[in-house]
Amino acid sequence: MENLAITMECLRDLVAFHTERISGYEAMLNGLTPDEQYLSTLFNAFIRQSANMKGELLQMGTLWGLDEEQLQHPGRYGFAWAMVKAVFSSRMPSYPLDKCKSGENALLIAYHSVEGTQGLPNPVRLLINRQKREVIGARDWIAHFATLPGQTERTQELVAVS
């Protein structure tokens, strides 16, 4: 029974992380300037990725007899969730890719934390491990976009303003 409670808390946290990630990327998508529109494809891909991951987590929960509504009900979130929420809802001036990089790093911290939780059933652990690798891939895409011409100058401008 304790393993079920641990599993539910971990799945609940990850569902919340992806809900926040979706909201964050939607907000950033709506705030793109005309010269940042090239990021819309990337942001839409991350929104779809989180929607799919969230769906997989909810499906895994129902396989373990957990109610889908329970998994979407706010639970006890760790520090990493607060970081994801703070990054994506921040009103501090920054460029979208900087915010993305910070958000993806916070999400990876969350996945790493959940992955190390004792008592998770093996199928849940395998799903979490696979999703963590996908988030690493997303972060790699952000790093790639950050190397495009014009991005390093924007980052330098941001540092100079700070």
Question: Could you describe the 3D structure shown?
Answer:
There is one protein chain. This protein has helices at residues 2-30, 40-63, 68-72, 79-89, 96-115, 122-146, 151-161. With 162 residues, the chain is mainly alpha-helical. The relative contact order is 0.16. Helix 1 (2-30) packs antiparallel against helix 5, helix 2 (40-63) packs antiparallel against helix 6 and helix 4 packs antiparallel against helix 5. The protein has a single domain (2-161), classed as Ferritin, core subunit, four-helix bundle (Ferritin, Up-down Bundle). The chain is 77% helix and 0% strand. This is DUF2383 domain-containing protein. InterPro entries: Ferritin-like.
Layout of SSEs?
Elements: H1 2-30, H2 40-63, H3 68-72, H4 79-89, H5 96-115, H6 122-146, H7 151-161
Helix pairs in contact: 1-2, 1-4, 1-5, 2-6, 4-5, 5-6
